[in-house]
C-alpha cells in the first residue's frame, strides 16, 4: 500500500498562505512553486479559499501538494474536498470535527501543543498532529515530545525558518509548516511576490540539505 504521508514527507515544507484576496493567494502560490516550495496550504481565512484550491489543482496537479488550512467546520472540510484538496488542516483538535474531516478521505492534520492535546489528536485518528504554535517551545520542545510519543507523526508549525529547519527534522518532525516566516502578511500587502519566491528558495535549499544529510 502507498503511504498516505509519503508526499508530505517528500514535500517537507507546507507554506501556510493566509492572503487578503484570492488573487493574492494565487500570486503567492505561484511564487512559492517557482521558489521550490510545492506544499501549499490555503487557509479558509483567505477569501474564496475553495476556488483558489481548485485553480491551483488545475495549474499544478500532482506537481504541488495543495490543501486547505484553518478548517474549523465540517462544511469547510467538504468544500475543500470538492475543490480537490489533498489534505485538511485544523488549528486545534475537536473529535467531532476530526471525524468529519476524516470522512472526506483526505489526509487530516489537527493542531495540538500539550501532551493531553496530542493524546486527543491521536485518539481521534488524525494522520498528522500539527504542533502549533511550535515557536513557543522550539525544536527542543518537539524533541521532548518524542519521548512519550515516539510514533506520532508530528509537524511543527510556527517558528520554522531556513536556519533552523534541520533542527526541527533532527528533533523528529515528519514535515514542517511555515507561515509568516515564508509568506508574510507584509509581503502580500505590498505585492512583494519576488520576496516570497526568494524566501521559498531559501526554505527549499534548507530542506534539500536535510534530505542530503539523511541519505
Element layout with pairings:
Layout: H1 6-11, E1 13-17, H2 22-35, E2 39-43, H3 49-60, E3 65-69, H4 74-83, E4 87-90, H5 95-102, E5 107-112, H6 115-123, E6 128-131, H7 138-146, E7 154-156, H8 165-170, E8 176-178, H9 185-189, H10 193-214
Parallel strand pairs: 1-2, 1-8, 2-3, 4-5, 5-6, 6-7
Helix pairs in contact: 2-3, 2-10, 3-4
Organism: Luethyella okanaganae
InterPro entries: Aldlse_KDPG_KHG, Aldolase_TIM
Protein name: Bifunctional 4-hydroxy-2-oxoglutarate aldolase/2-dehydro-3-deoxy-phosphogluconate aldolase
Low-confidence stretches: none
Number of helices: 10
Assess the beta-strand content as a share of residues.
15-25%
Structural shape = globular
Q: Which structural class best describes the helix and strand composition?
A: alpha/beta
Beta strands, count: 8
Could you tell me the radius of gyration in angstroms?
16 Å
Kindly provide the name of the CATH class: Alpha Beta
Total domains: 1
Query: What is the straight-line distance between the termini?
Result: 23 Å
Helix share, percent: 40-55%
The major beta sheet can be summarized as: 4 strands, parallel
The helix/strand series, from N terminus to C terminus, equals: HEHEHEHEHEHEHEHEHH
In CATH, the topology is named: TIM Barrel
Architecture overview:
The protein is globular. It has helices spanning 6-11, 22-35, 49-60, 74-83, 95-102, 115-123, 138-146, 165-170, 185-189, 193-214; strands spanning 13-17, 39-43, 65-69, 87-90, 107-112, 128-131, 154-156, 176-178. The two termini are 23 Å apart. The protein has 215 residues and is α/β, with parallel strands linked by helices. 47% of the residues lie in helices and 16% in strands. It has a single domain (6-214), classed as Aldolase class I (TIM Barrel, Alpha-Beta Barrel). It has a 4-stranded parallel sheet. The longest helix is centred in the last third of the chain and has 22 residues, at 193-214. Homotrimer. This is Bifunctional 4-hydroxy-2-oxoglutarate aldolase/2-dehydro-3-deoxy-phosphogluconate aldolase.
Amino acid at each position: 500500500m502507498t503511504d498516505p504521508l509519503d508526499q508530505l514527507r517528500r514535500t517537507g515544507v507546507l507554506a501556510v498562505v493566509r492572503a487578503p484576496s484570492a488573487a493574492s493567494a494565487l500570486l503567492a502560490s505561484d511564487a512559492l512553486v517557482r521558489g521550490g516550495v510545492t506544499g501549499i496550504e490555503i487557509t479558509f481565512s483567505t477569501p474564496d479559499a475553495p476556488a483558489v484550491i481548485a485553480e491551483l489543482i488545475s495549474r499544478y496537479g500532482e506537481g504541488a501538494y495543495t490543501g486547505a488550512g484553518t478548517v474549523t467546520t465540517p462544511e469547510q472540510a467538504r468544500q475543500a474536498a470538492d475543490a480537490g484538496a489533498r489534505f485538511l488542516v485544523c488549528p486545534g483538535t475537536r473529535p467531532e470535527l476530526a471525524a468529519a474531516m476524516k470522512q472526506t478521505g483526505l489526509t487530516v492534520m489537527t493542531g495540538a501543543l500539550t501532551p493531553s492535546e496530542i493524546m486527543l489528536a491521536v485518539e481521534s485518528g488524525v494522520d498528522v498532529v500539527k504542533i502549533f504554535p511550535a515557536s513557543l517551545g522550539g525544536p527542543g520542545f518537539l524533541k521532548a515530545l518524542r519521548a512519550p510519543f515516539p510514533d506520532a507523526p508530528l509537524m511543527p508549525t510556527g517558528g520554522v525558518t531556513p536556519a533552523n529547519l534541520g533542527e526541527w527534522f533532527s528533533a523528529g518532525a515528519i514535515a514542517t509548516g511555515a507561515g509568516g516566516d515564508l509568506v508574510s502578511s507584509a509581503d502580500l500587502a505590498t505585492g512583494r511576490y519576488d520576496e516570497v519566491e526568494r524566501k521559498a528558495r531559501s526554505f527549499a535549499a534548507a530542506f534539500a540539505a536535510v534530505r542530503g544529510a539523511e541519505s
